[in-house]
Amino acid sequence: MNQIDRYLLRNLAVATVFVTAGLSAAIWLTQSLRLVEMVVEGGASLGIFFRLALLTFPTFLSLILPLGLLAAVLFTYNRLIMDSELVVMRAAGLSPMALARPALILASVVAVLCYTLTLFAGPAAQRELVQLRQSVRSDVTAVLLREGTFNDVGSGLTVYVRERGREGALSGLLIHDLRSPGVATTVVAERGRLVEVDDVPHVVVFNGTQIKFRQDNGRTEWLEFARYTVDLQVLRKELGPRWIEPRERSLRDLVNLTDDPLDRQFVGRLRAELHSRLATPLLPLAFTAVGLAALLPGEFSRRGQGRRIALAAVGALVLQSAVLGISNLVGKNPVLTPLLYAVVLLPAVAALWYMVRWRALRRGLTRTVPAE
């Protein structure tokens, strides 16, 4: 790699990092805001919130990297054109393909990174994210987190907590239980603590009073106690077995399907996910080739390359939309699977071919124009 290649590669890499970081920060913020309500209602700590937010990062980073690379290629080469640096390089005998070599090297590196994210890091993060979400939603302390509020935690059970402390400590408790037919039980206690016995949640209350009203005879029973245990099994949200979504599955799981009837029922979705993971990481190469083909061949204009940049951006947008659309269609019609790879690879091949043959094409078009 010569000095010019290193210079171009350095500029492209820096621009890619900054553009990707900016896009990632904006999208990560929107994704994090969606987790706030779940974390607040689920009673998770701030550490769990940041862990959830970080686990969403690999999922969208593989989609942002190709766009960040395209923006970096268009910005960097357009700036070099406006500063006449590419004009000097072209005058020194460098062809469009020679000028494109650093961008293609960087695109190959980004493609490898995208493969790592889509095949390994992304599914692993998605599995961990789903498990952590389930843990938050099934947390026994979730419903009692809201202090100063009457919490309806289940059919016939209401819990009020004046203040919540650390490690399950509670103070100012009121528990109203209508789960027993014909009996209304109210427990008032100064303090209590959440515990789990054999994976069943209980609240142990101290220094309180139990008031039990029997509807059949209208009698009210009072009981003062120093220690009393209330079964809060209703707080535990049982999470039964569920079908693992395609985006949570590893590459091996997508290739080797199980005998689960749901796997057979949704085999199209699983196959679509497999081919999407194999095809979409090639988008950095396609986007880069499209951007280079728009800027490098032909004559440079000091008035700017706005039309070329817009053409490259629209082309990349159409390409991205086509890949997403065909990925969905592959799940319904497997015959379209080769089309998915063709849509990703052919634009890159066509753009590179154009950069090599643009002079011959220009001369051919010039000869076909009739003289006036």
From TrEMBL:
Q: Where does the sequence pass through the membrane?
A: 7-28, 48-77, 98-121, 278-297, 309-330, 336-356
- Species this chain originates from: Rhodocista pekingensis
**Where, subcellularly, is it found?**
Cell membrane
- Its name, as the record gives it, is LPS export ABC transporter permease LptF
UniProt keywords, alphabetically:
Cell membrane, Membrane, Transmembrane, Transmembrane helix
Give the highest taxon in the source lineage. Answer: Bacteria
Membrane topology term: Multi-pass membrane protein
Under the heading InterPro entries, the entry gives:
LptF, LptG/LptF_permease
Tell me one Pfam family matched here: LptF_LptG
Transmembrane as UniProt keyword: yes
